[in-house]
Design a protein that fits this description.
Blueprint: E1 8-13, E2 17-24, E3 27-35, H1 43-55, E4 63-68, H2 79-94, E5 98-101, E6 107-108, H3 113-120, H4 124-136, E7 139-144, E8 149-155, E9 158-159, H5 166-172, E10 175-176, E11 191-194, E12 197-200, H6 209-216, H7 236-245, H8 256-285, E13 293-296, H9 300-310, E14 314-316, H10 324-332, H11 334-346
Parallel strand pairs: 1-4, 4-5, 7-13, 13-14
Antiparallel strand pairs: 1-2, 2-3, 5-6, 7-8, 8-9, 8-10, 11-12
Helix pairs in contact: 1-2, 2-3, 4-11, 6-7, 6-8, 8-9
């Protein structure tokens, strides 16, 4: 009798979250997301892995596909050290059946991390884009996460860009360092409209993007895992209080409807940044105006607006799941889904 095929678990180790996707016989059966404030110490990663092990007790008997961006955390002296230390901690938690996604260099074992660290560093977007390209052919992957956003051209079933590093992708506009949860609001605009007048913005971490999308009702509480800017509650009253501080006011200085309109003004500023990036990258890479936007990340609701404004079709991140809720979680955790799927397809069990 053949032994049952080991599960494949894809991991995306970020600076703020640990995301994971579990495949059994090539089918997505679960997707997990845990807070992991890596800048506070590698013990945070240990704790997140412990939560994953409680959810999946057979963790060490599974095959693991790993990608990361957490090497950028200021816990580390440089990115090379970050890749090494994260890889070492991951091996302690998950065992020997580890495959690190190294982009164009393929997959590597823990022992080969040293030579491939620069290919491993912040390659999660490339895994997501490759899987999307295989599935949709031509289009634009727009992954709006908690902290960053990726805008990647897809052409002929391939990832169109030659950029690979964060530095190159920042220069090309394919990486935007803002998302819908952790970004300080002052990153979106120097001036903002309130009650019909334009006002200067306070360049302080008084409020974050989460306050905007919590007030608009678009941020899922499952993705609102980090403390607020002032460490206070996340109810609507406290959310309005933080937004008011951005322009030197108190929540009591205006009605709830005014603060909701203010949140929508901030939303419009971020949406404009994303819309411009999509247009710029699509033009630079020659992506047809009729090609779809492929939405991923916990801020995918913004991608829907961009698609509507540009007249492009909209597609959810292309992974088949058993039900709508699981598909939604897979869309949010696209890089973990992608590395699990790519390992399953490229290195079948037993190889």
């Amino acid at each position: 009798m053949r032994a049952p095929e080991a599960a494949v678990i894809g991991w995306d180790i970020g600076g703020a979250h640990l995301k994971a996707c579990r495949l059994e016989r090539g089918v997505v059966v679960d997707v997990g997301l845990w807070a992991c404030a890596l800048w506070q110490g590698l013990e945070r990663l240990d704790a997140a892995f412990a939560l994953a092990a409680a959810r999946w007790p057979d963790l060490r008997s599974a095959r693991h596909a790993v990608t990361m961006t957490g090497e950028m955390a200021d816990l580390f002296d440089d990115r090379e050290q970050g890749v090494h230390r994260i890889a070492g901690r991951t091996a302690l938690a998950l065992g020997d059946a580890l495959h690190f996604f190294a982009g164009d260099a393929g997959w590597c074992t823990p022992g080969a991390v040293g030579a491939a660290w620069s290919d491993i560093a912040s390659a999660n977007w490339l895994a997501s884009a490759r899987l999307a390209a295989h599935r949709v052919g031509d289009g634009m992957l727009v992954d709006v996460g908690s902290t960053t956003s990726d805008v990647v051209a897809l052409k002929g079933g391939r990832v169109a860009t030659s950029s690979r590093s964060d530095a190159d992708r920042l220069a090309s506009g394919e990486l935007l360092y803002h998302g819908v949860v952790r970004t300080p609001l002052c990153a979106f605009a120097r001036r903002i409209a309130f009650r019909g007048a334009s006002r200067n913005v306070m360049n302080e971490f008084f409020a974050s993007a989460a306050d905007v999308y919590r007030l608009t009702g678009e941020l899922d509480a499952a993705h609102d895992l980090h403390p607020s800017a002032d460490g206070a509650a996340k109810d609507l009253a406290a959310t309005r209080r933080r937004l008011a501080r951005m322009i030197g006011l108190d929540a009591g200085d205006a009605a709830a409807a005014d603060w909701l309109a203010f949140a929508h003004a901030w939303r419009a500023e971020q949406l404009a940044l994303l819309r411009d990036a999509v247009a710029r990258v699509a033009s630079a890479q020659g992506v047809a105006a009729t090609a779809p936007l492929v939405a991923a990340g916990c801020g995918s609701f913004l991608v829907a607006d961009i698609a509507a404004a540009s007249g492009r079709p909209l597609r959810a991140y292309p992974e088949t799941c058993a039900d709508a809720e699981l598909a939604r979680r897979a869309q949010v955790c696209a890089p973990s889904v992608a590395v699990a799927r790519l390992l399953h397809e490229q290195q079948p069990a037993g190889r």
